[in-house]
């Protein structure tokens, strides 16, 4: 596709429910990132994949958060037993080597509201 | 660890006024610097970036930013803002590792 796509765009979950958020990166992009953007804040790093390998998950706020990218393309961010503090926009970005530096492109995000 | 500080949380300007948004960063190595914009209801878009070379970087829609290494700053400027510039602006930094650290954002409101 032309850009990074994410689905669903909006998700309402009751507290305690599990959710799965999907990211389709730009075709051929090796690197994929997940960020969390709480209301009134800048995006904060959650985790990073290079192909199927999760190289950094230091930003995941708790063990309820889990991300995977099994075939090195589509990625899923899963949140188990959602809590109200998980309400945020979840952004996915993919990047490629532009010959000098990496160029990172962001998707539209999934707005998660936990009630 | 890298960090970004944006000085203004909310800026209100009249159309045709000049804009300068402050950004200071902290990072120990070679930095890549970015300004992103998020228009109401839309996703993050790259406004401009600095990797190396000329410290004065020109971006889309008439925006520019100047990298001043001695001040660890990367301020965003526009000589004359328009109502359509109403948005939230994020300064961001990354190092050799691609992880991007964002500032908390500045909401710009332009009054016609």
Keywords:
heterodimer, A: 115 residues, mainly beta, seven-stranded mixed sheet, four-stranded antiparallel sheet, B: 112 residues, six-stranded mixed sheet
Note down, in words, how this protein is organized:
The complex is a heterodimer of chains A (115) and B (112). Chain A is mainly beta. Chain A has no helices and 11 strands. With 112 residues, chain B is mostly beta strands. Helix content of chain B is 0%, strand content 53%. Chain B has strands at residues 3-6, 10-14, 19-21, 23-26, 32-38, 45-50, 56-58, 64-68, 73-78, 87-94, 101-102, 106-111. In chain B, strands 2, 5, 6, 10, 11 and 12 form a 6-stranded mixed β-sheet that branches. A 4-stranded antiparallel β-sheet of chain B has the order 3-9-8-7, with no helix packed on it. A two-stranded antiparallel sheet of chain B has the order 1-4. Classes of the chains: A mainly beta (115), B mainly beta (112). Chain A binds chain B through residues 31, 33, 35, 40-45, 48, 56, 91, 93, 95, 100-102, 104-109, and chain B through 4, 32, 36, 42-46, 51-52, 90, 92, 94, 98-105.
In terms of topology, how is this protein built?
The complex is a heterodimer of chains A (115) and B (112).
Chain A (H helix, E strand, L loop, with lengths): L4 E3 L2 E4 L5 E6 L6 E7 L6 E7 L2 E4 L8 E4 L6 E5 L8 E10 L4 E5 L3 E5 L1
Parallel strand pairs in A: 2-11
Antiparallel strand pairs in A: 1-3, 3-8, 4-5, 4-9, 5-6, 7-8, 9-10, 9-11
Chain B lengths: L2 E4 L3 E5 L4 E3 L1 E4 L5 E7 L6 E6 L5 E3 L5 E5 L4 E6 L8 E8 L6 E2 L3 E6 L1
Parallel strand pairs in B: 2-12
Antiparallel strand pairs in B: 1-4, 3-9, 5-6, 5-10, 7-8, 8-9, 10-11, 10-12
Tally of contiguous helical segments of chain B:
0
- Helix/strand-derived category of chain B reads mainly beta
Which stretches of chain A are poorly predicted, pLDDT < 50 over at least 5 residues? none
Beta-strand residue percentage of chain A: over 45%
Describe the biggest sheet of chain A?
7 strands, mixed
Quick one: how many beta strands of chain B? Answer: 12
| Radius of gyration of chain A, CA atoms, in whole angstroms | 14 Å
Structural class given helices, strands, pairing of chain A? Answer: mainly beta
Cα end-to-end separation of chain A: 33 Å
- Low-pLDDT ranges of chain B: none
Largest interface: A-B, 23 and 21 residues
Order of helix and strand elements from N to C terminus of chain B: EEEEEEEEEEEE
Strand-residue proportion of chain B: over 45%
Name the shape of chain A in a single word.
globular
Mean pLDDT of chain B: 92
Number of helices of chain A: 0
Q: Care to count the β-strands of chain A? A: 11
Shape of chain B: globular
**Helix percentage range of chain B:** under 10%
